[in-house]
Automatic annotation (TrEMBL):
It comes from marine sediment metagenome. This is Uncharacterized protein.
Length: 33
């Protein structure tokens, strides 16, 4: 599994408990890396 896919999977699992701004930050970080 590519690292980005792993990050997106983690984001998807975290989306239920983290505020939207945190999700946006994680997505932005995943996009940069």
């Amino acid at each position: 599994m590519p690292p980005i896919a792993v990050r997106l999977s983690a984001v998807a699992r975290t989306a239920d408990v983290a505020p939207p701004i945190d999700i946006s930050t994680i997505v932005a970080t995943a996009g940069i890396k």
